[in-house]
């Protein structure tokens, strides 16, 4: 389904226009249907998927912040940092440090 496809293709252009095109709907109708079916907007679903995957990579790998940002569709480390600070009140580096410190204790 589309939600699974989104989560498997986080590094791609996942704009509402692009997603609507993929399912042959107008952007407006797509947004309405997606939100009704999932309870959240397509943009929020994409951002949450990207954030979740970035968190996993920070926890489970030694990849650099820029690499993680590119692989998860944030484009660059600055965009990743902005989302982390807005959603988690931490930078990606702080998140990684706290996660590893908590697991060592």
TrEMBL record:
One of its GO terms (molecular function) is sequence-specific DNA binding. The keyword Ribonucleoprotein does not apply. InterPro entries: AraC_XylS_family_regulators, Homeodomain-like_sf, HTH_AraC, HTH_AraC-typ_CS. The keyword Transcription regulation applies. Residues 1-98 form the HTH araC/xylS-type domain. SMART domains: HTH_ARAC. Pfam families: HTH_18. This is Helix-turn-helix domain-containing protein. The lineage of its organism: Bacteria, Pseudomonadati, Pseudomonadota, Gammaproteobacteria, Enterobacterales.
